[in-house]
Amino acid sequence: MSRYLKLLPSLLIVLAGTFVLTPSIAQTTNEEPGLRKFVERMLSIYGGDTKVIVGKLPEKMPVELPIPSASQILGSTVSEKGNIQVVLDASGTVEQVTDFYKNQLQKSGWEQPNKNPDIDNFSRGFVETSSQFGDYLTFCHQTNKLLYLGLRIKKGKETPSIVSVDLNSVNEKDENSYNPCKESPTVDYQMGEVILLPILTPPSDTEVSRKGTDYSNNDSSVSLETKLDSKTLANHYSQQLEKAGWKRIDSGETNSYSWSTWTFKDEKGKSRQGLMSFTRLEGKLNQYFANLKVL
């Protein structure tokens, strides 16, 4: 994704409100055309001209975009290449809005592509908050191969959720053009057991950092900062293990430590066993050390 897209939500919010400089400098107040030109110039620094549209979708959309009820469209942009980004406020939680888009996009012929194995294998285990697997979803259309859709949903400060939707065109004539919907060739990684670790995304309002992964031993560990109790935290990750085909054998919990043991079969049908644990860090409020290991 282009670097300027990270700035877009805050820039659009500036457009929707009032932009005021210090009293000693000429001020621009409630002048939408001037503010729009300012944002367009800011975005053009990163290459190409970009049209900024305040408070609505572009007039010409290549596909129909689902919008949750009780949402407010903050604005959208159209790049020189025809790529579109829409930013809106949604009333539901991050989980609710994510489920809405997954269901609605699936009904409209969109589907999530198979992960690129070059990225996928090296992102298994606990996912850090900043990872693309934590908050960015890609969708490909079953019939329209010239578009792919990117979706990012975050918790807002003044609204339950902030949604950013990208509609990106694919340049078929450019072999080096990024296309996440293009099937990747089969690759022999010779990485032994890397594929045994599932991808585990964090709960909302949970910061994940300092990830350490030993792929040769199928061992993933992270530091977690969350207001969730250890039982709720363990249940969140346990549900993801179950979706990955893991079956719980046993579990236990104390005031500062919770653990669970699991069994599953690898791609060759061989039985494997895993251990997941969460340790509350003494003297550090709302902080845990999490570990997942295939034995």
Provide structural commentary.
The protein is an alpha+beta fold. The protein folds into 2 domains: 167 residues, no CATH class; 101 residues, no CATH class. 20% of the residues lie in helices and 34% in strands. It has a 7-stranded antiparallel β-sheet, with helices on both faces. Strands 10-11-15-14-13-12 form a 6-stranded antiparallel β-sheet, covered by helices on one side. Strands 5-9 form a two-stranded parallel sheet. Strand 10 and strand 11 form a beta hairpin. Helix 1 runs antiparallel to helix 2. The protein is globular and about 60 Å long.
Q: What is the H/E order?
A: HHEEEHEHEHEEEEEEHEEEE
Please summarize the sheet with the most strands. Answer: 7 strands, antiparallel
| Strand content range | 25-35%
What number is the mean pLDDT? 78
- Shape from CA axes? globular
The radius of gyration computed from the alpha-carbon positions, rounded to a whole number of angstroms, is 22 Å
What proportion of the residues is helical, as a percent range? 10-25%
